[in-house]
Amino acid sequence: MEKSETPFQAKLRVLSEIVGTYAYTMCVISIFVFAIVWLILVITSDYKLVESWSILKAIELAQTAITLLIVCIPEGMPLVISMAMAFSVD
Question: Domain locations in the chain?
């Protein structure tokens, strides 16, 4: 028996790829924005670029960006499933 993709599965796959692409894009954008914020914090403070405070701040900002990615994908999946179900109804 050959397994073929149903129209609902195809629409669900396409919509989930869109949500994943947007989540990765937001993660990359937030990493760049947080890097700029980190550089501004280091420049405006009395700390040096390679000091424990500035490195910890960079790690904290990177963790925030990765957390955004981890949270975006599960939050978007119910929306994807309901949209795919709505589009698959003829």
Answer: 44-83
Cα-based distances in Å from 86 to 47, 72, 83, 89: 54, 22, 5, 6
For 78-88, letters b (16+ CB in 10 Å) and e give: eebeeebeeee
Is the separation of the CB atoms in 73 and 21 below 8 Å?
no
Instruction: Report percent pLDDT > 90 for the chain.
Output: 3
Q: Quote the pTM value.
A: 0.66
What pLDDT is attached to residue 36?
92
Give the Å distances, CA to CA, from 80 to 65, 66, 71, 75: 23, 21, 15, 10
**55 conformational bin, left if phi > 0, alpha if psi -120 to 50, beta if neither:** alpha
